[in-house]
Structure formats: structure tokens, C-alpha cells
């Protein structure tokens, strides 16, 4: 789409689109929105800064409902991430690990197939909020209950005592997260909104204006808690998992309370789970090519490339320098780092 088209949408038109997007929100949420800073959105007309993070209006309503009604249990497991950082993959891996006694990874001689072969991971592990409300928790009898969320750590309201709740946070290097988000959100934008150019999107990303951003604040919230409470919060990196899936799955299984036995390791169960949940295997399944498991999002959009380092095909040297400086400024003091320099030589 020509850049002139991208930049000439009027504020009035954007406001009209926002009115249509937000017409089904509660009066309470609409009242809150009036008091919040807002910027142009990626897939919606606007993003609003709520509790320190940029969110879509419907996400704010969902977070408000979650904070009001959710009652955590000691055995709960929460899979957290900023969008486009490996959420679908982590749901699949965690489900397979936790349920491997009930659902053998390899199809048995009776023809019983693993649920991940016929269900999208988002159907098996619900978000803590969905369609502007938290899921029907009363219907989830099995423990541990396993949920996923993009909500920043501080907004989960789990402190001062997390007891035995387990949180797994997966993050991805910000370069790849940006490119994945740009592709993904341009496919999902509201009718009437133009595509966002790579340059415009990059500026917004560096300013922190992206869903549940700033990305550095989101990462640091969980990173710092993982250092303070390693028994409660496990911090994993997408890039490291792609490089060495076996040791990371062992770490994940132990943390979740479902460690692999020596016999399972000999039988290759870890490798079987890795293959079952691999990007290549999940992408070719019919269930992941068709239908919608998250409201308004076609399953096929959840699987693009899943590669590490794809950003080198998109970002200019000046963009790489700018984002590198932001990461250095925001993350260096915390000890959180990413191996992106090695990808520059590709």
C-alpha cells in the first residue's frame, strides 16, 4: 500500500473506527478509557496506556474483569509472554509435558491420537482472559489448572505471596518479535485501517507503543521476579530453546513438577515431545491451517516462519543500531541479554 495512503487517515476517521470497535464495551470500561493516554494502534484504531502498558480497549476490559474475579489456586500454572514470542509453542510444549501420562506422545495401536494433532494449542490451554472475560474456571476440575496470559507481571496482582503458583515466561529477542508482530498485526487490522509501514511500526515499537509494551518493561517485570522467586517464575528464551530444545524441556518439565524419568529419557520421550510440538509439525496440521481458536484470529496466521534471525532480512543498519541501543539502555543493568550480534553475519 502506498505510504501516502498509510499516513493520510484522519483522526476523525480513526475515531469513527474506534467507536465501532468499542461499542460493546461496558460503561465502566468506557469511563476508564476516557482518562487514559492513547496513541494510534497497530490492529485497532488506538492503544491506551493502562497500568503502565499499552493495550487495546477490549484487553483493558478483560484485564479489569480478571483482576476483579480471578482467584488463583496454589497449583495453578501460568504461561506468560508478550505477543509473538512463542506463546503457541509454549502452550503446546507445556500441555504435552503435563499430560503425557494421559496422552502418550506417539499414537498407540488403538489409533488414539494426541490432542495436539487435532486441536490448536490455544484450544487446549485457555488464556486467563478471553473474549473480554476470564474463562469458566468452575468447569476446569483438573489440577494443575494451566492458563496463558500476555498480562504484565505487576497486573497479575499475585503478590505479596505467590505460594506455589508456577509462572513460565517465554520471551524472544526483540528484533524477531518486532518483525513477527508487524507481519501478524497487519493481517488483523480493523476494517478501514491502512497497513502500517515497516518504518512507522518500528518507530512505534521503539517508543514502546505496541500491545502490552513497552517490550522491555514487560520482559523486565518477569525477569526480575524470576531472580527473586526462582521457585515460582521460570524465564525462558525462545532463541535458546530453538538452539537446545532437549535441555530446555528438561528444565521446563522439572519446574512444572513433571520431571522426565531416566527411563523416559532413554525412550526418547523428550525428543518425541519436541517433534510433536515443533513449528514444522504443527504448521502442517489441518487444524492449524483452518478455523479460529482465538476470537477473530485465523489459526493459519499463528504460524508464519518461527525462525531465529529472520529480522536480518528486513531491518536497515540504522534500525539495528537504534534498537540495539534501546536494548542496551533498558536491559543491560538487569543482566538480561540476547544473542543477536551473531545473526548479523548471515
Secondary structure layout plus pairing:
Blueprint: H1 3-7, H2 11-21, H3 27-34, E1 38-40, E2 46-50, E3 53-55, H4 57-69, E4 77-80, H5 87-98, H6 121-124, E5 146-149, E6 166-171, H7 174-188, H8 198-206, H9 215-228, E7 233-237, H10 238-243, H11 245-256, H12 262-267, H13 269-276, H14 279-283, E8 292-294, E9 297-298, H15 317-331
Parallel strand pairs: 4-5, 4-6, 6-7
Antiparallel strand pairs: 1-2, 2-3, 8-9
CATH topology: Rossmann fold
Task: Specify the CATH homologous superfamily.
Answer: P-loop containing nucleotide triphosphate hydrolases
Task: State the name of the first-level CATH class.
Answer: Alpha Beta
Portion in helices:
40-55%
Number of strands: 9
Please count the helical segments: 15
Please give the CATH architecture: 3-Layer(aba) Sandwich
Order of helices and strands: HHHEEEHEHHEEHHHEHHHHHEEH
Alpha-beta content class: alpha/beta
The radius of gyration is 20 Å
The parts where pLDDT drops under 50 for at least 5 residues are 1-8
Into which percentage range does the β-strand content fall?
5-15%
Protein name: Sulfotransferase
EC number: 2.8.2.-
Keywords: Transferase
Family: Belongs to the sulfotransferase 1 family.
Amino acid at each position: 500500500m502506498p505510504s501516502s495512503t498509510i499516513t493520510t487517515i484522519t483522526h476523525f476517521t480513526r475515531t469513527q473506527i474506534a467507536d465501532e470497535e468499542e461499542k460493546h464495551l461496558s460503561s465502566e470500561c468506557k469511563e476508564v478509557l476516557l482518562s487514559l493516554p492513547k496513541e494510534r494502534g497497530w490492529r485497532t484504531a488506538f492503544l491506551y496506556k493502562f497500568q503502565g502498558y499499552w493495550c487495546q480497549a477490549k484487553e483493558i476490559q478483560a484485564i479489569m474483569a480478571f483482576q476483579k474475579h480471578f482467584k488463583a489456586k496454589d497449583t495453578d500454572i501460568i504461561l506468560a509472554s508478550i505477543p509473538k514470542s512463542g506463546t503457541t509453542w509454549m502452550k503446546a510444549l507445556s500441555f504435552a509435558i503435563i499430560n503425557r501420562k494421559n496422552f502418550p506422545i506417539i499414537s498407540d495401536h488403538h489409533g488414539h491420537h494426541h490432542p495436539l494433532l487435532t486441536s490448536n494449542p490455544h484450544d487446549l490451554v485457555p488464556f486467563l482472559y478471553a473474549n473480554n472475560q476470564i474463562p469458566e474456571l468452575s468447569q476446569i476440575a483438573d489440577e494443575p489448572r494451566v492458563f496463558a496470559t500476555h498480562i504484565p507481571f505487576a497486573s497479575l496482582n499475585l503478590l505479596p505471596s505467590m505460594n506455589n503458583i508456577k509462572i513460565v515466561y517465554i520471551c524472544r529477542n526483540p528484533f524477531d518479535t518486532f518483525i513477527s508482530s508487524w507481519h501478524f498485526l497487519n493481517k488483523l487490522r480493523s476494517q478501514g485501517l491502512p497497513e502500517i509501514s515497516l518504518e512507522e511500526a518500528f518507530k512505534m515499537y521503539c517508543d514502546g507503543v505496541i500491545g502490552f509494551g513497552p517490550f522491555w518493561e514487560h520482559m523486565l517485570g518477569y525477569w526480575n521476579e524470576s531472580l527473586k522467586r526462582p521457585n515460582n517464575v521460570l524465564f525462558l528464551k525462545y532463541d535458546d530453546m530453538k538452539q537446545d530444545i532437549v535441555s530446555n524441556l528438561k528444565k521446563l518439565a522439572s519446574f512444572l513438577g513433571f520431571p522426565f524419568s531416566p527411563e523416559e529419557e532413554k525412550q526418547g520421550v523428550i525428543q518425541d515431545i519436541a517433534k510433536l510440538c515443533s513449528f514444522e509439525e504443527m504448521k502442517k496440521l489441518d487444524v492449524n491451517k483452518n478455523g479460529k481458536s482465538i476470537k477473530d484470529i485465523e489459526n493459519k496466521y499463528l504460524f508464519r516462519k518461527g525462525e531465529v534471525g529472520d529480522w536480518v532480512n528486513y531491518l536497515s543498519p540504522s534500525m539495528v543500531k537504534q534498537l540495539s541501543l534501546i536494548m542496551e539502555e533498558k536491559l543491560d543493568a538487569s543482566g538480561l541479554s540476547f544473542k543477536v550480534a551473531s545473526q548479523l553475519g548471515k
